[in-house]
Design a protein that fits this description.
Elements: H1 2-32, E1 35-40, H2 48-51, E2 59-65, H3 69-79, E3 86-87, H4 90-97, E4 101-104, H5 111-118, E5 124-128, H6 135-147, E6 152-155, H7 162-173, E7 180-188, H8 192-195, H9 199-205, H10 215-218, H11 220-230, E8 238-244, E9 257-263, E10 268-274, E11 281-288, E12 291-295, E13 300-305, E14 312-315, H12 327-335, H13 349-368, E15 372-373
Parallel strand pairs: 1-2, 1-4, 2-3, 4-5, 5-6, 7-10
Antiparallel strand pairs: 7-11, 8-9, 8-15, 9-10, 11-12, 12-13, 13-14
Length: 377
């Protein structure tokens, strides 16, 4: 009897070991496979990032949704994807190609419809910045993402910057400059028309409904995102904004110049968003009690701490800090469970709901000429 039990135990153990090995092999195989990604909308000027992506190890393009059939066919020829991937109905595409994730490259207003279609199907979503045009949309999208347990990420170019991550480390991990007191963030370029964006992008980027505003939304969102990240999710107290139209002949419906002041109990941010800079820029100045950190561009920094006789210049790369230079590689690793999105990271849903809250208040402030106190909203 004892020998029989021993035999049964041995056979069972071998069976379990084999099954575990097979499951482990399957899990590893799934992790090694590229994430099946579909594109929802291709009118955004940044869509070539995914359509022309050369390294397909992390993502595989399986579908393209676009109602502008001429544009979809033109891009298929330009970027080398098959026209068989093109769909004019979002729901039909999702059901036909069954993507694991969708990246949204239509207007900001269209983000809501993408999440409404994807969330109930359990499909993860990454949108281009900002998350939504209004706080009502953002909160509904957040609710859908939580209800259906999907990742809902927002992609900002500054999220790829090694200098952004290093600035956070110096401010929050090493306490290099003491507690934050003032942050000044500059973002923008000469203007959409001036830099030559295509017609499809220009049409909605300069529409107050489809984009939610002009420079205030297009580039103010960067500062709101970075400040929320640096403040580790602390909610602001008030928002005051001024917008102007320096070029009404080109941008008659939206602002082309915006300054947003965001206050916290112990800090202040000044966000300068513009379609009137003499050249493109994305830089920020972070001032603390005992020093400062200035990100000149994606890799160059100027820093000075208490006791330093002069500021220091530094160059930081992805070899120095944990940063993803490719947002689609980040998306793939999140879906595969290789990394966890920090609650108030630059891509996170919580951060980007706060971003829309700031932009919504800034739009109201600019319209009324009054400071908006967020506790009253």
């Amino acid at each position: 009897m004892k020998n029989k039990l021993h035999c049964y135990y041995t056979v069972a153990l071998i069976t379990i070991t084999c099954l575990t090995a097979n499951l482990s092999a399957k899990a590893q195989d799934n992790l090694a496979k590229p994430v099946r990604v579909a594109v929802a909308g291709i009118t955004h000027g940044h869509v070539p990032w995914i359509l022309s992506k050369k390294d397909k190890k992390d993502v595989e393009l399986v579908g393209v949704y676009e109602t502008n059939s001429e544009l979809a066919a033109r891009y298929a020829k330009r970027y080398g994807y098959s026209e068989s991937l093109i769909y004019s109905d979002l729901g039909k595409m999702l059901d036909a190609v069954k993507p694991e994730a969708v990246v949204a490259f239509g207007s900001i207003l269209q983000h809501m419809a993408v999440v409404e279609a994807c969330a109930p199907r359990g499909i993860h979503v990454m949108v281009e910045k900002p998350l939504a045009t209004t706080i009502e949309q953002a909160l509904k999208m957040q609710s859908l993402a939580k209800k259906y347990s999907i990742h809902l990420l927002t992609n900002f170019e500054t999220s790829w910057y090694p200098a952004t991550v290093k600035a956070y480390q110096l401010v929050n991990d090493s306490n290099y400059i003491g507690s934050i007191k003032k942050v000044v963030i500059h973002d923008g370029h000469e203007g959409p028309r001036e830099i030559g964006v295509n017609k499809e992008f220009f049409d909605w980027l300069t529409d107050p409904v489809e984009n939610g505003g002009g420079a205030l939304v297009d580039f103010g969102c960067y500062g709101a995102n970075l400040m929320t990240y640096l403040m580790k999710g602390e909610q602001p107290v008030s928002v005051t904004a001024v917008t102007q139209q320096f070029k009404p002949g080109i941008y008659p419906k939206v602002d082309d110049e915006a300054t947003i002041i965001v206050t916290y109990p112990s800090a202040q941010a000044i966000i300068q968003a513009s379609w009137n800079w003499p050249f493109g820029r994305k830089d920020m100045e972070v001032y603390g009690q005992t020093g400062y950190v200035i990100t000149v561009n994606d890799t160059d920094m100027r820093v000075r701490a208490k006791g330093d006789k002069a500021e220091h210049f530094a160059k930081v790369t992805e070899a120095d800090v944990p940063v993803y230079r490719d947002p689609f590689a980040y998306l793939a690793d999140v879906i595969h469970g290789k990394i966890t999105v920090p609650e108030y990271g630059v891509y996170s849903l919580a951060t980007n709901v706060t971003v829309v809250k700031i932009l919504d208040a800034a739009r109201e402030s600019a319209k009324t000429g009054k400071t908006v106190w967020l506790k009253d909203r």
